Amino acid sequence: MKRAALLIFLLLPSSCISVVWERDRWHRPPVTETVNALQEGVDLESCLDALGAPLRVWQVGSGYALSWAWYDSKELSYRLTVPLGQSASTSLRYTNVGQDTEGLLLFFDDKDKLVLVERGFLKDMMSEEEERSPAPPMQKKGEA
Amino acid sequence: MKASLLSLALLLILPGCFTTRKTINQQLSSEAAAQVAPGTSAADVVELLGAPTDIVQLGHRSAYLYEFQQTKMTGLLAGVVGFMNSDTRSDRVWIFLGPGGDTVTHVGSSFDADKAENRMPWTE
After folding, report:
1. What is the pLDDT of residue B25?
2. CA A139, B97, B67, A66 torsion: positive or negative?
3. Residue ranges per domain, chain A?
4. Got the DSSP string for chain A?
5. Is residue B123 part of a domain?
6. pLDDT digits (tens, 9 = 90+) for B10-63
7. How far away is chain A from the Cα of B89, in angstroms, using its nearest Cα?
8. Per residue in A60-80, is it b (16+ CB within 10 Å) or e — as a string?
9. What is the total count of domains within chain B?
10. Does any CB of chain A come closer than 8 Å to the CB of residue B58?
11. Is residue B60 part of a domain?
């Protein structure tokens, strides 16, 4: 009987305290060898054949850009939820690991020829791109 | 005693398992998309695939996006410990149209939505 009481005592706090291992995968990166094989001057058709459909396309000057993006985040979260009344509660969340969205940008000229390939964290590349272009479509993590 | 403790533990732990599936937009037909090729008219594209999810203006040209997204979530909540996994993939078709937006010049497609999986966070 004592064991049952102990078990219930141990399980009851699960409603307000939890340790959660979360993994969130959003799309997949293109094959590295495929990206490395892309050379300046390659046409749009070859790039689409090699990489498939991009996530986004937008105009850049007289040309345009294509973007692929992905992330794979692994987080260990500690949550403490404290009931404040019948209809309200508050919670604190601590996350010790985070990973940002990575991406691949391909820039084409008006003749559909590849002029630039950029890889890295999407946030950094897009902020650089914002300086070059007035209105690129900035994507937030988790948005399609 | 052991059996009753185990039963109690199972009753308290099992309700913490879940799988969900969330989709955005309607699933794309790969057969219909395969019929779109350079030279296809914009009217035929719309007849085959319906209204695009998005239209992007590229100077005098334009591009249609067709997109279907699927997210599969899996969770296991055992007492104070939880495991959650979310996997998002999508089907996308980008159709590039020439000046005036009348005729298809390029098509790019990826069909990965069905590859989204219900799995635990530690699996690769």
Report:
1. 96
2. negative
3. 16-132
4. -HHHHHHHHHHGGGGTEEEEEEEEEES-PPPHHHHHT--TT-BHHHHHHHH---SEEEEETTEEEEEEEEEEEEEEEEEEEEE-SSS-EEEEEEE----PPEEEEEEE-TTSBEEEEEEEEHHHHHHHHHHHSS------TT--
5. no
6. 666 666 788 999 999 999 999 999 999 999 999 999 999 999 999 999 999 999
7. 5
8. beebbbbbbbbbebebebebe
9. 1
10. yes
11. yes
User: Which chain A residue has its CA at the smallest distance from B56's CA?
Assistant: A58
Residue B29, domain extent = 17-115
Does the global pTM surpass 0.80?
Answer: no
B5, part of any domain: no
Residues B108, A13: C-beta atoms closer than 8 Å = no
Q: Does B39 touch chain A (CB under 8 A)?
A: no
pLDDT of residue A134: 46
Question: Chains A, B: CB contacts under 8 A, how many?
Answer: 103
DSSP B63: E
Interface residue B82 vs chain A (CB under 8 A): yes
Series of mean pLDDT values for 10-residue runs along chain A (144 residues):
69 68 92 93 96 96 94 81 54 47 94 94 73 47 43
Instruction: Note whether B94 contacts A21, CB cutoff 8 Å.
Output: no
Beta bridge partners of A143: none
Cβ B88–A22 below 8 Å, yes or no?
Answer: no
The nearest alpha carbon in chain B to A43 belongs to B106
Q: Do A52 and B108 touch (CB under 8 A)?
A: yes
- Cβ neighbours of A19 in B, within 8 Å: 80-82
